[in-house]
TrEMBL record:
Domain of life the protein comes from: Bacteria
InterPro entries cross-referenced by the UniProt entry: FecR, Ferrdict_sens_TM
Record-level Gene Ontology MF annotations: sigma factor antagonist activity
Segments forming domain FecR protein: 7-99
Annotated protein name in UniProt: FecR domain-containing protein
Length: 217
């Protein structure tokens, strides 16, 4: 018997879903997934967004997450999957082990991940596997984002997932500046103040509820 259920979160919304087998899915903002449970397998399709999966162990029914042509398979573990709009997928493991595969069946690429490891790539690219700070990558579950010497371009793209007033960099050279810190995803003002304290920039209000960042004069 197969059950198909859809789960979504809107912009600014996070929620936890309890699945029929007792597994839990912690969904980040702007996420959409479809659940297909069958007698021999538990399968979810991540259409967009990001989620952490805490999977109940069942060796007879593998738990599979599809993200395009990228597939993650486990029997019981905790892991995070993020599907970017441009097609890249990131898989980070907190507990247990997972098998990641990608690409068409005739040329599948595979990787085995254990706790503290990150695989990232896309269905048509080679995967890179490395150590990572999984707690920092999943800090969104505690309402935080963590940046460690990242470019301002990366920082702004990440913050814009959560801020009601999107930030726009008004000068290309600003993208190369680097920033670090831990920020509350609901405290836009706190982030903008930290931005001006750490970097030689100024914040201006633009039309249509946008925020501009310019070079400080």
């Amino acid at each position: 018997m197969s059950h198909a259920l859809s789960y979504t979160t809107a912009f600014g919304e996070q929620k936890t879903v309890k699945l029929p087998d007792g597994s839990e899915v912690h969904m980040n903002v702007s996420t959409e997934l479809v659940l297909h449970y069958q007698a021999h397998r538990r399968q979810l399709t991540l259409l967009k967004g990001e989620a952490t999966f805490a999977v109940q162990t069942d060796k007879n029914r593998p738990f599979i997450v599809d993200a395009g042509q990228v597939q993650v398979e486990v029997t019981g573990t905790v892991f995070n999957v993020r599907r970017h709009a441009e097609g890249n997928v990131e898989v980070a493991v907190t507990e247990g082990s997972v098998q990641v595969s990608s690409g068409p069946w005739w040329s599948r690429k595979q990787a085995s991940l254990t706790p503290g490891m990150l695989a990232q790539g896309s269905e048509d690219q080679a995967w890179s596997v490395q150590r990572t700070d999984v707690a920092a990558r999943t800090a969104w579950r505690q309402g935080k984002v963590v940046f460690r010497d990242q470019t301002l371009d990366e920082v702004v793209q990440e913050m814009n997932r959560y801020l009601p007033e999107p930030i726009e960099l008004m000068d290309e050279k600003l993208k190369r500046l680097r920033m670090a810190g831990v920020f509350n995803i609901e405290d836009a003002q706190g982030f903008l103040l930290a931005l001006q304290e750490q970097l030689p920039v100024a914040v201006v209000r633009l039309v249509e509820g946008r925020v501009g960042v310019t070079v400080e004069r």
